[in-house]
Design goal:
single chain, about 250 residues, alpha/beta, 5-stranded mixed β-sheet, 4-stranded antiparallel β-sheet, 7 helices
Length: about 250
C-alpha cells in the first residue's frame, strides 16, 4: 500500500493518478467515528493507494470534539504510515530535489513536487562523529529515497526498478500485472449521466475514471474489472458502450 498525505489542495489526488490500483481519499474523516483505529487502518491498507489530508496544523480548535477528531486523524495517519510500503508527503510548489529523480513537477504541469523518502531509524555515524544537540549521540536519523546499504543496514530503494541489490517498488505491482495478463473482456451498455461520462475521461476529479477498478454484477456474481475502451456517448439514451478487462481474483489461475 502507498500512503499519500499532505495539506489540503497539495496535489495528492493529482499525484495518485500516476499510480495504478485501487484508491481511497480523505480517510482522515473516518477516524473521528472509528471505535478501533487499528482495525480501521488494517481495513484501509487493503487499498493500493490511501490518501489523507493533514488536519493537525494551524490554530488549535476550541471545541473538544474537533480537537479529538484531529487527534484521531493523526493517530490513523501514523498507523497507515506504519503499514505502507511507501509514504508520499505532498506539498505545493516546494522544491525538494525530486526532479533529479524523475519527478519534474514543472514539466508535467502538476506544479508540485512530492517529497518521498523512507525513514530507516537511527543509523550509526562514523567513528568519532556526533549528531549534536540535543541528543549528542553517535547516530543520526536516516531518511533516503535510495540507500545502497552498509555493514549495519540492508540496501533499500523507492525506485520502481531493482537497484544496488534492493527490490524496487515494482514488487507491489507484479502480481497485479500478472493478473491483468490473464483478463477476459466484458462488453456492456452502461447507463450513465453526461457528467459521469465526462469524469471517466478526466483523471483527478475524485470520481470513477479510466484508472479506477470497477465492480460489475454479471448476473453470475460480482467481478472486478478495469475500463479498457469507452464508446461514444448517446445523449438521447444516456448511455455508452464500454469494454472492461476482468481482473483475475486472488488465488485463481
Amino acid at each position: 500500500m502507498i500512503f499519500i498525505t499532505g495539506p489540503l489542495y497539495s496535489g495528492k489526488r493529482t499525484f495518485a493518478q500516476r499510480l495504478p490500483g485501487t484508491r481511497i481519499a480523505e480517510v482522515q474523516a473516518l477516524a473521528a467515528e472509528a471505535e478501533d483505529l487499528e482495525k480501521l487502518a488494517e481495513e484501509l491498507s487493503a487499498y493500493d493507494i490511501v490518501m489523507a489530508t493533514e488536519v493537525g496544523g494551524g490554530v488549535v480548535p476550541m471545541d473538544a470534539g474537533e480537537r479529538s477528531a484531529r487527534e484521531a486523524a493523526g493517530r490513523l495517519a501514523c498507523l497507515l504510515a506504519a503499514r505502507a510500503g511507501c509514504v508520499v508527503d505532498c506539498h505545493v510548489k516546494i522544491d525538494t530535489g525530486m526532479s533529479r529523480l524523475g519527478f519534474d513537477a514543472e514539466s508535467d504541469g502538476t506544479n508540485f513536487t512530492p517529497r518521498i523518502v523512507r525513514y530507516a531509524g537511527m543509523h550509526p555515524l562514523a567513528e568519532g562523529e556526533r549528531w549534536g544537540y540535543p541528543s549528542d549521540e553517535p547516530t543520526y536519523p536516516l531518511a533516503a529515497f535510495h540507500f545502497e546499504g552498509d555493514g549495519t543496514l540492508e540496501p533499500f530503494t523507492l525506485c520502481f526498478e531493482d537497484r544496488d541489490g534492493a527490490q524496487g517498488l515494482h514488487r507491489y505491482y507484479d502480481r497485479q500485472a500478472a493478473r491483468e495478463e490473464r483478463y477476459e473482456r466484458i462488453t456492456l451498455t452502461l447507463r450513465i449521466d453526461p457528467d459521469e461520462y465526462e469524469a471517466l475521461l478526466t483523471p483527478g476529479t475524485g470520481g470513477a475514471e479510466l484508472r479506477s477498478v470497477f465492480r460489475i454484477d454479471t448476473g453470475g456474481g460480482v467481478v472486478r474489472a478495469t475500463l479498457h475502451a469507452l464508446g461514444e456517448y448517446d445523449p438521447e439514451a444516456r448511455c455508452a458502450r464500454c469494454t472492461f478487462n476482468r481482473l483475475a481474483e486472488e488465488g485463481t489461475a
